[in-house]
Design goal:
Layout: E1 37-42, E2 54-60, H1 66-74, E3 92-98, E4 101-105, H2 116-132, E5 136-144, H3 151-162, E6 167-172, H4 179-193, E7 201-205, H5 214-225
Parallel strand pairs: 2-4, 2-5, 5-6, 6-7
Antiparallel strand pairs: 1-3, 3-4
């Protein structure tokens, strides 16, 4: 991470950036995300699948486009279902890619009209998962590019820093902005997240509607998921 610029040296080593400026890190092998199948849902850490192999978690505020991103990544329109009431889902949903490789859809947060005690319980489960799950290799934190770094985004970044967990920020709905404003937001977010104290943090723009940024996301995930030295 560059101390002078206040941001990581852009995923070095990297290949040439794509047309949108998203750098695509070279991965040891390509993961076939289309093979994703639902594994199970878990309300607490104790209900999760065995803590073996490797997994990458997706988290984001309600309406950040998390379900759409997962569906675009796996080329499956209904793998991650979008609730008609944002933020109501309290379960961690696990999807298997291959033996010992999983994606995890963490509960959305931010807009649900639920009691404060219930929100506090959700926070506790999320923080516990990030800190205690040894098979977790990275966190994809999704933010609407028009409204980045909200309060709960900051919470997730802080929890990830405490857990020494790598984070990849996905600025979704990039198609809603022109390229100039989108790139300005990306640079601003990179500067801000570099100050959190994370061991590793990268960021990119993304659109589930157009497929913009998908290769960069696939490369980052493949890099994390290939780290399967404890795979059963």
């Amino acid at each position: 991470m560059s101390k002078d610029s206040g941001q990581r040296d852009d995923q070095a080593p990297v290949t040439a950036p794509d047309a949108a400026g998203n750098h695509v890190p070279p991965g040891p092998r390509k993961i076939d995300f289309q093979r994703a199948v639902f594994l199970k849902s878990a309300p607490t850490l104790a209900d999760c699948p065995p803590d073996q192999g490797v997994e990458v978690a997706f988290a984001g505020r309600s309406n950040a486009g998390k379900s759409s991103a997962l569906n675009a990544l796996t080329r499956q329109g209904k793998l991650a279902r979008t609730s008609k009431t944002p933020g109501r889902t309290r379960l961690m949903n696990f999807f298997a890619l291959a033996p010992g490789q999983r994606l995890v859809d963490l509960p959305g947060y931010g807009y649900a009209k639920v009691p404060k005690a219930m929100k506090a319980e959700w926070d506790q489960h999320l923080a516990h998962y990030l800190r205690a799950r040894s098979s977790l290799r990275g966190l994809v934190l999704l933010m609407d590019i028009r409204h980045p770094l909200q309060t709960f985004d900051q919470h997730m970044l802080a929890w990830a820093a405490e857990a020494a967990l790598p984070v990849h920020v996905l600025l979704t709905k990039a198609d809603k902005l022109n390229r100039g404003p989108a790139q300005a937001t990306l640079l601003g977010v990179r500067r801000e997240v570099a100050r959190v104290g994370l061991t590793e943090v990268t960021a990119q723009t993304f659109s589930a509607q157009t497929g913009h940024g998908l290769p960069a996301l696939e490369a980052r995930l493949s890099d994390w998921l290939a780290d399967s030295t404890d795979q059963p």
